[in-house]
Structures are given as C-alpha cells and as structure tokens.
Amino acid sequence: MPANGNAISSLDMAYIVFEAVIALASLSGNVLVVWAVKLNKALRDTTFYLIVSLAVADIAVGAVAIPIAILISLEVNMHFYCCLFASCLLCILTQNSILSLLAIAIDRYLRVKQPVKYRAVMTHRRAWMAVGVCWLVPTILGLLPMLGWHRGGSLGATAERNSSSSSSTEGRYKACSFSAVTSMDYVVYFNFFGLILTPLLLMLGLYVLVFTTIKKQLQHSQAACKASRLQKELKLANALALVLALFAMCWLPLPIMNSVGFFCPTCHVSKPILYCGILLSHANSAINPVVYAFKIKKFRVTFLKIWHHYYTGSEWSKSAPHSNTLQSQGAEKSDSV
Questions:
Q1: Which domain does 194 fall in, by range?
Q2: Backbone angles phi, psi at 2, to 5 degrees
C-alpha cells in the first residue's frame, strides 16, 4: 500500500497490470533466447554469447527491476539505504544492457573489418571475459550512490540521526522514490550523458562503419562464397542495429524526462507521462526476443523446434533434411543467420 495509506488509484493499478504483462513477456521471451543458444550449437559463437548476456539482463528486468519499480512507484515506506540500493539495481541493469550492446557493436565491427584476425583473437574464453566485464563494470558504477553519491543530506542524514535514537524508529523509514534518494547529478550527468548517450553515439558510429565496410567489400568481391558470407553478415548487422535502435527509442524518453526536471525545476512531468516512460523502457526487454525471431533465422528455427519438440510433442522438419532434432543444428555453419 502507498506510504500515505490511501488506496491504490486506477492509474497505479493500470500501471501495475501493464508492468506485470511486460515482466511475463520479458521472462518467457528471454528464457527462450538462452534456451535456444544452449540447445543450438550453431548459436554458440562470440556474438551470441553477448546476446545471451543481454538476454540475462532482460530476464533480470522482468524478475527484479519491474517489481522494484512497482514498489518505488507506490512509494512504500522503506529504509533509506534499502530504497537507495533498489534504485541502484535499476541503474545497474540499464548500464549492463548498454555495455552488452556496445560489446556486440565492437564485435560486429571487428568481424567485418578483420575477419581473419578476428577468428584468431576473439576466442570463446575472451568472449566470456567480455561478458564478465559487461556485468562487473555496471555493478561497480551502479553502486556508486551507495558509497555516498546520493541525496542523503536530507533523507539519509535524518535516517542516520534517528537510527541512534531508540524512541524514534519511524524516521528511518520514508516513502521510497527514485528521485528522493538518488542524486540527480549522478542520474543526468554520469548515468545519462556518460553511460547511456555517449555509448549510443559510439555504437551509431560503429554500425555506420560496419555497413559501409560490408558494402565496399561486396562491391569488390569476386568470389561467390565471400559474397554469400558478407550478405549473411549484413543481415545479422541489420538485426542487431534494429535491436540498438529499439533500445534507444525505448530508453531515451525516461532519462530525457529526468533531465528536463533537473535543468528546469519549474517544469513538471505528469505521472501518466512518467509511467509511460517507465513502461516503454521496460518493454524493450520484451521486444528483443521478437526481433531475434523475425530477423535471425537460426533463432527463428530453434524457437520453432523448441515449441514443436517440447510443447506439441512433434518434430518440426521444414528446414534441412538433417534438422529433425534440436541437437543436429550444430552441423549448421556458424556464419549463417
């Protein structure tokens, strides 16, 4: 129940319902992505390891971030540092997603720019190291508010003073909201400008280089096999660029709202618009599996085989002659999409 003790409004209830639907879609879709990579040996290369990292982050959005967002939206009473830690988790998952997308963009660029060296340098071990970096760095940066970069001057300091008094335990608990505990300097300058906007611009430049490089190579390619490989690289780059574009469309509105409130204190963002921004950012976690299904053939085929094998009890054999089992897909070339 909200901190003010009033009943949940119809707007809050609608927001909770939409969040629950998004959480269910995000969990089911991204679990399917991880499952597909586990079953299909053809999906076990460096790019798809990074896609798995992104899918795990999206699973965490459905399982962790959305329930936290609901609690924060209702402004439930919570200890200052519990509320701050919950807010930090939201930042960590956002930063993890953007770093995973950046790693995918760098991987694609290296693959088309130096395909021979790429295969020698980008080993499975190094790919998993990149995944580890995509989780470690956001965890460190996302927890910076816990080390003091927070709005503790008013709420936090009061909580600490009240915690030393046994007769005033109520002061340690306040209505939890993201803006009440998180420094807007951190949210706008560090998180938005530094960790979201800058990587997005960098990725935009990388994908421009990827597309121009592939098109130049196609123009000068004489061998049919090389042209076929480049066409497959172009298809996969298109799919991953679409994932990036959707991420930008879904995630930019919310930090822009925060920036407007930060630079224009008199400007007011209404609660319905704020809820739309939050829902849009969370909906991105449910969109990615749909993009993979429609744009990447290996995912689409594996999804269909999982459905037929595990849910209908039949085998799906529309594709290659030896594709009547899930494990046989390992015979497919890893460059196909």
A1: 10-331
A2: -60, 160
